Fold this protein.
Amino acid sequence: MHHRIAIAVTALALILAGCGGEDAGGSVAGTYELVKDQALLDGVKAVASHDTGAASEEALAQIQSMVDGMSMTLQLKEDGTFEVNGTMGEEMSASGTWKEEGSEVVLTTTHENGKKREEPDIVRFTREGTSLRMPKNEKDQPFDMVLQRK
């Protein structure tokens, strides 16, 4: 189970590395941080339970520890570029460009962990007031991820 949770968290880090955005008027530009709330914890628990059946108290404590250790800071710059850094099971960083399309902020990741990507990765966030939400999807994001503007 530990291995599957670590894989899920690492995959999440790579997904999030491609996220971020700001609008041409600058209203989205700024610094955002990962919200480590009950929804995130519940999502990680659900993934663990799905992979292993009912999670034991030991597994739940480990999941809580993983969530507590997660961090992510996304900086959407006025010039249309972004940088994201954090810890999602392991240290990660990414950069690229962003744009705003209606209620979505679209990030195109061109670099991950100091290396240029062979193909850019595009991720969409939904703008909700002063936060950005990456909704869950069955393919690669098993729960919502929220970044709150600082």
About this structure: Confidence is low (pLDDT under 50) at residues 1-26. The CA atoms of residues 131 and 148 lie 4 Å apart.
